[in-house]
Amino acid sequence: MNPEIKKYGEQFKTQYAKIRAAIKHYDKIVVYRHIKPDFDAMGTQMGLVTFLKDNFPNKEIHFVGDNHVSFTPRLFPETERLNDEFYKGKNCLSIICDVGDHERIADPRYVNARAIVKFDHHPFKSEIAKVSVLDLEAASAAEIVADFCLNWKGMKMSPEAASYFYTGIVGDSGRFLYSSTSPHTFAVAETLIGCGISITSIYQKMYEKTIHSLEIQAYVLTHFHVSPHGVSYYLLPTEVQNELGITSEQGKENVNMFSNIAGINAWCSITQDDSPKEPCWRISIRSKGKDISGVANKWGGGGHKQASGAKIDTIDQLDAFIKDLDDLFVEQ
Ligand code: AMP
Q1: How far is the centre of ligand 1, averaged over its atoms, from the C-alpha of 266 (Å)?
Q2: What is the separation, in whole angstroms, between the first and last Cα of the chain?
Q3: With 60 as the cut, is the pLDDT of residue 18 above it?
Q4: What is the spatial distance between Cα 269 and Cα 232, in angstroms, rounded to a whole number?
């Protein structure tokens, strides 16, 4: 076993043992992740589901949650629809991945289980599980859950499970670019590659572009703004989304076009979303160095130092939000 993986497993020895015992005990297991899923949420969920199905063929393993308009068809199976009958008697285990707060779990019925365990790398918000593996430094949730699986002696990691985990790691580490990428990230990635996956086929599916997507990029490149201290942002109001033929979910897909531009310290996509009861503008924030999660928390969101989500209720709040981010870079 790679020494980085062994060392990491030692750190979470007690939690890993409890989660293994729960998995062995329950015949019905449901794996959950956050709403509005990204590569990491879906890769972690499907990696774990596949690993469990491969190693426990007699157990009933399920996966639920909203699908992603473009990632699901390219990379993941459609999620399952469990009826309420399933939860009768509560004789099942909920495994929560990549999410730390109740409101963001993509099916609230996870509470209808006799035992709840969690793997996450988001700041702690509220206790949702009795046993929790929480590593705020981990670049992705997939890195943590893959480590849990790789540390489980006698279990096999199939190429399919490894491919899902690898997708999550690549997604949330920004292709190993973010500062959260560590020796452990590479150790897990190396081990997964050794399980026989095709990384070129994974990258092709993850980053495939269409001619239509080039038109959206063209819009973003001709409509972005930059604040005095290097916060770039683009707005996608509903009428523009309609013109471009995209959903609000797709609005953030071009946020990283601004990731490596001199003079840009943080960058955001700001997308109108009329779907919730209280319509809002959803913001994806990314940063080169400074911790932007405090600003995200202040503006109804949260996340990590260099990748967070937030929202404003009306466009009148835009200037105040951008100023909060801009202020982070005043001395640079
Ligand atoms: P996004 O820009 O939506 O891709 O989110 C970037 C990161 O921030 C992801 O890891 C999300 O899980 C996290 N995030 C986004 N919105 C929230 C929120 N409201 N609360 C906590 N974390 C969030």
Answers
A1: 15
A2: 44
A3: yes
A4: 9
For residue 332, pLDDT beyond 70: no
Average pLDDT (102-108) is 95
Nearest to 313 by CA among 267, 269, 266, 274: 274
For residue 154, the CA-to-ligand 1 centroid distance in Å is 35
Q: Which residues line ligand 1 (CB under 6 A)?
A: 34, 38, 104, 122, 252, 284, 301-304, 307-309
Name the residue of 308, 311, 313, 325 whose CB sits within 8 Å of the most ligand 1 atoms, as the mutation to test its pocket: 308
- The closest of 192, 187, 200, 198 to 157, measured between CA atoms, is 192
Beta bridge partners of 303: 308
Do 137 and 182 contact (CB within 8 A), yes or no? yes
| Statement: the pTM of the whole predicted model exceeds 0.90 | no
